[in-house]
Prior knowledge:
Largest sheet: none
Helix content: 40-55%
Strand content: under 5%
Order of helices and strands: HHHHHHHHHH
Low-confidence stretches: 271-281
Structural class: mainly alpha
Distance between the termini: 63 Å
Number of strands: 0
Amino acid sequence: MPVLRSATAGSGEAPKQFSQPSRKGKKAWRKNVDVTEVEEGLREVNDEIIRGGVIREKASEDLFTIDTTGDSKIPQKFPKHVKKGLKADEIINKRSAVPAVSMRKRPSDKTTDGVVPAKRQRTDWVSHKDLARLKKVADGHHENTVAVRDATFDLWDAPAPVTQDPTDFLPEKIEAKVPKSMKLKPLSLLANGKQAPAVPKPTGGYSYNPSFPEYESRLAEESTKALEAEQKRLEAEAAEAAKLEAAAKSAAEADAAEERANMSEWEEDSEWEGFQSGVEDERPSAKQPKRKTQAQRNRIKRRKEEEQLAQHKANMKARRAQEQRIKEIAAEVAEKEKEKALELAKAAEQDSDGDSEIGEEKLRRRQLGKYKLPEKDLELVLPDELQESLRLLKPEGNLLKDRYRSLLLRGKVESRRHIPFKKQAKTKVTEKWTHKDFVL
């Protein structure tokens, strides 16, 4: 829509009517109407369209920009009104353009230390190899030529570089990296390296109402285990007691020896003028070692050489015997491997038949984690605790403990130690003096 405004809108003149003699006749209706304002408005609108669009139709974001840096000429125009900077910044900015004098000692040319300086390779001349290469380049023979290839992408369709918002000062969120162990299979703690079942199947001896043969065999087995554990405990206690007794005995002997040493020192001090009775008569009974003669050394050397020769002959004889029965040894090795394969197949069949049954588990020596696998609870009902009625039955065991131990046994979770009290962070309580902030 064209912009309409009067001729005196921008000037300081008073408003007035158009200079038109009369509009009463038919001739003056269209022909003599003053349309200068309309034409001026249309011209201004066309100029704005040529420059990029009508200003009144544009949004505020296209017409205005937010200045976040400020004017750099304001400190020059108003130096007194600008906030004074830090003294440290002022000292740092006052740096001389002249480099500092080096503190290294420079020996004069006349005085020398007497050491002939080593010859250094000259760097102000061109080697023969570089000279030959430069001549080839001058002749047009380039070693490394760049092959011009057509572009496989449109440069103008490339995405615009992402500019970081200056107001966004928060760091980018970094996702946690997945450890390499997550891709590996869990390591079983069994000695044979096989995976234990998640929920083992109990045998008849674990029942609340078991059959007599199965219950009797399981009771005897658990009793034997308990007796062996008690025997080991008693042996450990006896060994500890013997160790303590030996330590006490050695300490008593050391005290007695120290007392004897003190008494002997006192007797030596009490001797008169260094004389002692019976000392001259006593002589050392131990035989002093004598130096070996050359004949003895030769005899020892010959004996060692004979022993080495006899050992070499015995080794060669055994080697010849093995070479003669190589076929027999190969047949024996093949027979042993066949027997071993049969044993492994039988063991695999037995494991497949009774993998899900609860039995005695042999753990590997090196377990997962710093702490050992917790011991399995004794799941055995004594003969006097067996009940004949389900009403008097007391359920035993803990499914949560069983599942947790199964996870540890299969290597799914690392064994941990229970920490009853967590270490809390140290806090310091202070009193804020709010009365100091009070100003009249």
